[in-house]
Design brief:
4-stranded antiparallel β-sheet; 5-stranded antiparallel β-sheet; Tachylectin-2, Chain A; 0% helix; mainly beta; 340 residues; globular
């Protein structure tokens, strides 16, 4: 397999073609996309800052900080860039936070990880971040799934769809291992919704769960891949399907390549990498670097756009910490034998 990756265009910030500062979005990251049933593509961002952001890295909370914001796109030809038509907004026209913080726990922020539309409803996997402890490691209260029935304008966080983490402390470093489903990537196949999960941070392995699309919000209905079979209910029975370090995983099935594509941050390579598999349970190929920190310092993210499912051009969003904004990237894949 051969790859060639290039920067297409900047997606966010005052210097972008979208001029997202008109929505009060001066600095932001992630850019997770999924298709709706009405022809639109939804795009969700992480921690977002307004006019007094500061111009480098994450900004101060008083700079109109919002944990997450959501926009809508209609263009499918991404060769010249990704166009954001509108955003879920406050009365002043600036982007509004869509998923609220949890007042019951110590929580720094609520970060989206993956989205999908099923039966007219939108589901968004998110993590409740308890503490940041650096760019590679952090701790979460839980990973959860939020749901919207009005096209993404408002969201609920049902307690039935929460995977609680085991909070570590100085005195309890030998506590039970962290939940492997704190950050998730949705995939749809075989009449199931699949969830590939990783522990909090960017250094863990990836694990696999599945559920009927009718029971997405019922954690008790999920089954977990043990390496040999599907085990009900207990996420700790899951065995890795993709060896780490796996950070910010994104997965899509490519009809062109006839296999699953996964992009994630690999901290050991300081790169966004591609892996492929004919089955979500693996085996997955070794990580193939697509873009490196040498080219784009402090890169992260790597979230696949839905148009990547149909052709040889794979589009994904990439974040950079310094400019603290989102960029659209394109990779051309060439397989010697796409049917294999």
């Amino acid at each position: 397999m051969l790859t060639e990756t290039e920067l297409v265009a900047r997606v966010t910030g005052p210097g972008s073609a979208n001029r997202t500062d008109r929505f009060g979005v001066h600095g932001t990251d992630l850019g997770i996309t999924w298709d709706a049933d009405d022809g639109r593509t939804l795009i969700v961002f992480g921690d977002t800052y307004g006019e007094r952001w500061g111009g480098h890295g994450a900004g101060p909370r008083e700079a109109d900080w919002r944990c997450n914001v959501l926009g809508y796109c209609t263009n499918r030809d991404l060769s010249a860039g990704l166009t954001i038509d509108s955003m879920v907004a406050r009365p002043d026209g600036h982007a509004r936070q869509i998923i609220e913080r949890d007042p019951r726990v110590k929580e720094e922020t609520v970060i989206p990880c993956s989205g999908i539309s099923i039966g007219g409803k939108h589901y968004l996997q998110y993590m409740s971040v308890r503490t940041w402890s650096g760019p590679r490691r952090w701790y979460t209260n839980y990973g959860g799934i939020a749901v919207s029935s009005d096209g993404g304008a408002t969201w609920d966080k049902p307690s039935s769809a929460i995977w609680r983490n085991h909070i570590r402390s100085f005195w309890r470093r030998r506590s039970r291992r962290d939940s492997p489903f704190q950050m998730g990537a949705f995939a749809r196949a075989d009449n199931h919704l699949y969830l590939l999960g990783t522990p909090s941070g960017r250094l863990g392995h990836a694990y696999l769960a599945r559920v009927s699309p009718d029971h997405v919000l019922d954690r008790r209905a999920y089954e977990y891949w043990t390496g040999a079979t599907w085990h009900p209910s207990d996420e700790y029975r899951a065995q890795p399907v993709m060896r780490g370090p796996v950070g910010e995983l994104s997965v899509i099935y490519s009809a062109h390549a006839r296999r699953w594509l996964a992009i994630h941050l690999d901290e050991s390579l300081a790169a966004l990498v591609l892996r492929t598999a004919t089955d979500l349970a693996g085996p997955w190929t070794d990580p193939l670097p697509l873009v490196t920190g040498q080219e784009f310092p402090a890169l992260y993210g790597g979230f696949l756009h839905p148009v990547s499912a149909t052709g040889p051009d794979v589009y994904f969003t990439m974040s950079q910490w310094g400019p603290y904004n989102v960029f659209l990237m394109r990779t051309r894949l060439t397989f010697d034998n796409p049917s294999r």
